[in-house]
Amino acid sequence: MYGNHDTETALVPDEGDSERQAEFDALIADDQRIEPRDWMPDAYRRTLIRQVAQHAHSEIIGMQPEGNWITRAPSLRRKAILIAKVQDEGGHGLYLYSACETLGVDREDLLDRLHGGRQKYSSIFNYPALTWADVGAIGWLVDGAAIMNQVALCRCSYGPYARAMIRICKEESFHQRQGFEILHTLAHGTPAQKEMAQDAVNRFWAPALMMFGPPDDASPHSAQSMAWGIKRFSNDELRQRFVDMSVPQAEVLGLSLPDPDLRWNDERGHYDSGELDWDEFARVISGDGPCNAQRMSRRIRAHEDGAWVREAAQAYAAKQAARTLEVAAS
Ligand code: 3HC
Description:
The chain is mainly alpha-helical and about 325 residues long. The chain is built from 13 helices and two strands, in the order ααααααααααββααα. A two-stranded antiparallel sheet has the order 1-2. The longest helix is centred in the middle third of the chain and has 29 residues, at about 160-185. Residues about 5-15 have low confidence and may be disordered. Bound molecules: 3-hydroxybutanoyl-coenzyme A. 3-hydroxybutanoyl-coenzyme A binds near residues 59, 211 and 213.
């Protein structure tokens, strides 16, 4: 229903590799890291390529909604903070493409798959950033949800991915705090500013919850990813943790969360929340969201506009390599 199911087979030995499969299984069972030099089942490699590439795609597409507000930031301080954040997201994409390349794939090929619609990016970035308060809601909710997901990925069984996450999470916490500060300023400003902040939270709350993926019983990849130690918690578990964390934060902000069914459940020790619109989710991840076409055309144009930079860098690298060989041969 939601994705490509050709990436995994159950934890069964690869043909003729049963000894190495047993070694791999023992490493996973012992909660050890798998490194690029280690043997791994093709299905494990394919799952990581799928997830890490889509994570990287999300980071670079995610630069667009906030990047559109850099020239319209309300002060030099906000502009400087926003420039730093958007620049960070580009860097996160680079870390993750690099981590993905350790699995034997080529970055250009991954970008072709993104541009050709054969790989996804996070649904959240297909929603428009309509007001300055949206920059705050994106920081507080979107980066907050990303942190919830990415802290768990710091313990992912694949070494390069886990290590990239540790660096990314440090920067994400700044992203989340600056968003919270924007919303707190607006929510404690004029009535019009408070209304703008509330409107942004109303529009971003449900899409932020969808970032954690479909419900566990509709997630084709989760069980296998958890068996391999790629995922440490299920989609619903992380979503629940995020809801439990966000409710008291919204109270501090003085803003309400747009869910009439949101209430503390003493028995569960968690907040109960209303059903999300999974038909909307399915539409957005299949390309029919509010901004999918705009995000992709802008991404492809940016890639084309940047071709000369890549060519120049490659020509310079080739020249340097040739000079190094000359010196070594002389
Ligand atoms: N947006 C787009 N696609 C989604 C999605 C979402 N929010 N949630 C799930 N999907 C897709 C999956 O990719 C899969 O499709 P595929 O087979 O074509 O790849 C399908 O829906 C089924 O979902 P599953 O839950 O079975 O898939 P996963 O086990 O891969 O779980 C996930 C989905 C939780 C997003 C997991 O892939 C993950 O943890 N990814 C890493 C984190 C990530 O990508 N975050 C994106 C946001 S990055 C960001 O926010 C930047 C920050 O700086 C703001």
